[in-house]
TrEMBL record:
It comes from the Bacteria. This is Crp/Fnr family transcriptional regulator. Keywords: DNA-binding, Transcription, Transcription regulation. The keyword Coiled coil does not apply. It comes from Rhizobium ruizarguesonis. Residues 151-217 form the HTH crp-type domain. InterPro entries: cNMP-bd_dom_sf, HTH_CRP, RmlC-like_jellyroll, WH_DNA-bd_sf.
Length: 241
């Protein structure tokens, strides 16, 4: 098994760990490819690994009993999947899978849980990260309740832009519909609104950011608070844009 160097890993959480904390995990780390639709966390099934993404984008989704599905958060190279175990929960009804293919570093759940038990500082660090994911969920609920569709769409595009490299986002209309909890036709109409003000250019399977500042203006107050909280509680800017 290859040795991992903390200075060269591409996951923000792993970079921010103490040297001792990283050492507690590194012996069992495995770098893996994460293809499109790969499941990181299955609903109601004990999670076997924590995955620290280095590239790509995972979606956390929740399903109702009548099979309505909506995205509630992102897992990206600044974060990790399987964080419900930090709260002493073995399984979760939510599901996490790759919406944009990438790669990551897997750590067996037993190794991760043992490290948390042996290192209170490390456990506190991951609890702070869980706090930022809960805040992201809270602001998604706020956006859904109080903001118009094009404002919510601008927010989600900004969030994807923060977390993916470059200005071309390989995201489909189906993905955006899942994120926003609407029909695909509704997403298409709202993309046209953002194209009309020259904020983006949308083609099949791709959204190109033309004017990030325009998107921030459109999103208004539903974008920015979770991003600033991430920086505050973990001590590193959410993104370098």
């Amino acid at each position: 098994m290859p040795q991992f160097d903390q200075s060269t890993v591409e996951n923000t959480l792993l970079k921010l760990l103490s040297v001792d904390g990283f050492a507690r995990l590194s012996g069992e780390m495995e770098r893996v490819d994460l293809p499109l639709r790969h499941v990181l966390v299955a609903s109601d099934v004990p999670t076997t690994h924590v995955c620290f993404l280095e590239r790509g984008l995972g979606s956390m989704v929740v399903s109702s009993t009548d099979e309505e599905v909506v995205e509630i958060g992102h897992i990206v190279p600044e974060g990790a999947s399987g964080m419900h175990v930090v709260l002493a929960v073995e399984t979760t009804p939510t599901r996490t899978f790759m919406q944009v293919a990438g790669s990551g570093i897997m750590v067996p759940m037993e190794t991760f849980q043992r490290a948390l038990a042996d290192d209170p500082e490390m456990k506190d660090f991951f609890l702070r990260y869980v706090h930022t994911t809960v805040l992201q969920l809270a602001h998604s609920a706020l956006a859904n309740a109080r903001y118009n569709m094009h404002e919510r769409l601008a927010r989600w595009i900004l969030m994807c832009h923060d977390r993916l490299e470059g200005n071309n986002l390989a995201i489909t209309h189906e993905f955006l519909a899942l994120m926003l909890g609407v029909r695909r036709s509704g997403v298409t109409n709202e993309l046209h609104v953002l194209e009309g003000v020259h904020a983006i250019r949308s083609t099949r399977g791709n959204v190109r950011i033309l004017d990030r500042e325009k998107l921030i203006e459109i999103a208004g107050g539903c974008y920015g608070v979770p991003e600033r909280e991430y920086e505050k509680v973990l001590g590193l800017p959410h993104c370098a844009r």
